[in-house]
Amino acid sequence: MGHFQFMPSTFESFAVDYDGDGKRDIWSNKKDAFASAANYLSRSGWKGDQTWGRQVKLPTGFDKSLIGLDTKKSLEEWSKLGITRSDGGPLPTARSDVSGSVVVADNKNGAGPAFLIYDNYRVTLKWNRSTFFAVAVGTLAERIGDG
User: Fold this and answer.
1) pLDDT in tens, 93-110
2) For the whole model, what pTM was predicted?
3) Among residues 112, 125, 111, 118, which one has the least CA distance to residue 41?
4) Structural domain of residue 89, as residue ranges?
């Protein structure tokens, strides 16, 4: 339903009347729609001070069994396995509290673009279980914010 494809139960739980007109209108009121989407993500665990993930380069011969949401490692551990930023630069390993998983956009044979994803990505998957959707939302969040 609405601009952000809420399920009816999601609308009931998370839609807000941002402009105070007495209606939660996620169809024609962009303020209500965006505020409702933000409310959903925030209450689902989105952390505004963290990113969703980043595109990365996998080294030649990378163990493809490590691809997927079930394998979670620190940035330092991924770095030691040869993963770099997409530009070839090193991963930021200073934050020991950040861990992530490697996902591949096509998720079939590891041939598509690879991403190192964090908890905000997992929050997006609560909304829609599509890798493509979660990457698109994360990328859009970066472009809208200061990221």
Assistant:
1) 777 778 999 998 775 565
2) 0.81
3) 125
4) 53-144
